[in-house]
Design a protein that fits this description.
Largest sheet: none
Pfam family, one: Keratin_assoc
Helix content: over 70%
Subcellular location: Membrane
Number of helices: 5
Structural class: mainly alpha
Number of strands: 0
GO cellular component, one term: membrane
Organism: Hibiscus trionum
Strand content: under 5%
Radius of gyration: 14 Å
Family: Belongs to the KRTCAP2 family.
Distance between the termini: 29 Å
Length: 92
């Protein structure tokens, strides 16, 4: 089982890769209805990975993870989803 530090590192790297690929292919993701739904799914993956990162970061600092982490991760994922199509906010 991975420790908090390595899990935090892997989730941050995965967040960076997913966000970079989402921004590179935002024209393709906005081109059709099916790709717009796929963009919403990718944004939900961003939310999940970012929530794991924030939770592990707070655990290494001895802070309990609460609703603030969920709201922050959701806000970042919603902003990322809205950069290529506004409907992606509603699909996830």
């Amino acid at each position: 089982m991975a420790g908090s530090g390595s899990s935090m590192l892997y989730s941050f790297l995965l967040f960076t890769v997913i966000l970079s690929l989402q921004m590179m292919y935002r024209g393709k993701l906005a081109s059709s209805e099916l790709f717009t739904i796929l963009g919403g799914f990718i944004s939900s993956l961003l939310f999940l990975v970012l929530l794991i990162f924030i939770g592990n970061f707070q655990e290494t600092n001895g802070i309990r993870t609460g609703w603030g982490a969920v709201i922050l991760a959701e806000a970042v994922a919603l902003i990322a989803a809205s950069t290529f199509h506004r409907v992606c906010i509603k699909t996830w």
